[in-house]
Specification:
Elements: H1 2-31, H2 40-53, H3 55-87, H4 89-104, H5 107-118, H6 122-146, H7 150-158, H8 163-201, H9 206-215, H10 219-253
Length: 254
C-alpha cells in the first residue's frame, strides 16, 4: 500500500511538472517574444550546451557547496540554541529579543554588512546565509523542546537512563518532526539566499551566472541556470527530505 501511494505521488509530480511546462510553452508561443520569454525547448538547448561545455556542473557544484555549509552550520547552531531556550525559560526570556531581531532582520542587510565588514569571500557568503537561517531553526526547535513530554522524561529518570540514552531514545524521537520541518523549510530558504550572495559578490555559482546573463539581458541563460538548480532542489526534496520527514513522524502514528 505504501509503495502504491509513493507511485501515485510520483505520477502526480510528473503530471504537475508537465502541466507547468505546457503552460510555459503556451504563454511563450502566444507572447512571441523569444528575447524576453524563450520557449522551454530553447532553454533546454542552452541548458544542454552549458552542460556539455562543463560550465553548468562547475557552477551548480559551487552553489551546492555553499548551500551545504550554510545548511549544516544553521541546523547545528539553531538546534542547540533552540533546545537551550526551550528547556530553560529564564534564558529564553532574556534571549527572546535577540531571536526576534535576528528573525526579522532583512537578509539583504545581513549579506551586505557581511561583505562590507569581512570582505567578498566565502566566509562572508556562508556566514551571512547561515545567520539568516539559524534564527528560524531556533524558533522551531524551541517549540519542539517546549513540547517534550515530561512524563517520558520522568520515566527515563526512574529507569536511570544515561544522558546519551535519554537523548537518543527520549528526546530525539520527539524532536525528529521539528528537525525535519526545520531542514525542509530551511533548505528552500537557504538556496535562495545563496543565489543572492553569489549575485552580489562571488566569482562563481548559479547566482553569479544569473547576474552575468542578467547584465547581458540573456533570459534564456538565466532561465537555464535557474531551472538546473530548481531541478536539483526538487530531487533533494522528493528523494531525501520528504522520506526523512515521513520517517520522523512515523512513530506518532505507529
Amino acid at each position: 500500500m505504501a509503495q502504491k501511494g509513493l507511485q501515485v505521488d510520483r505520477a502526480a509530480l510528473a503530471v504537475s511538472l508537465a502541466a507547468m511546462a505546457l503552460l510555459w510553452a503556451g504563454i511563450s508561443v502566444l507572447a512571441d517574444d523569444p528575447v524576453r520569454l524563450p520557449t522551454p525547448w530553447r532553454v533546454a538547448e542552452v541548458l544542454w550546451a552549458e552542460a556539455a561545455a562543463g560550465d553548468l556542473g562547475r557552477h551548480v557544484l559551487a552553489t551546492l557547496g555553499r548551500v551545504g555549509w550554510s545548511f549544516g552550520i544553521a541546523m547545528a547552531a539553531g538546534s542547540v540554541l533552540g533546545l537551550l531556550l526551550g528547556l530553560h525559560p529564564r534564558f529564553d526570556r532574556w534571549a527572546d529579543p535577540w531571536v526576534v531581531i535576528a528573525l526579522n532582520l532583512p537578509a539583504l542587510v545581513v549579506i551586505v554588512l557581511a561583505y562590507v565588514w569581512f570582505g567578498l569571500n566565502e566566509l562572508s557568503a556562508v556566514g551571512a546565509v547561515a545567520f539568516n537561517k539559524t534564527a528560524m531553526v531556533v524558533v522551531t526547535m524551541r517549540e519542539g523542546a517546549r513540547a517534550l513530554d515530561p512524563r517520558i522524561a520522568e520515566m527515563a529518570r526512574v529507569y536511570r537512563l544515561s544522558p546519551w540514552a535519554r537523548l537518543r531514545h527520549v528526546m530525539l524521537p520527539q524532536l525528529a518532526p521539528y528537525l525535519a520541518a526545520s531542514a525542509r523549510n530551511g533548505l528552500a530558504i537557504i538556496w535562495k539566499l545563496v543565489l543572492v550572495v553569489e549575485f552580489l559578490g562571488r566569482p562563481n555559482g548559479v547566482g553569479f551566472q544569473i547576474h552575468l546573463y542578467f547584465q547581458l539581458f540573456d533570459v534564456a541563460h538565466v532561465l537555464a541556470y535557474s531551472a538546473a538548480f530548481v531541478a536539483v532542489m526538487l530531487v533533494m526534496e522528493y528523494v531525501l527530505l520528504q522520506p526523512v520527514e515521513l520517517r520522523a513522524r512515523r512513530w506518532r502514528t505507529a
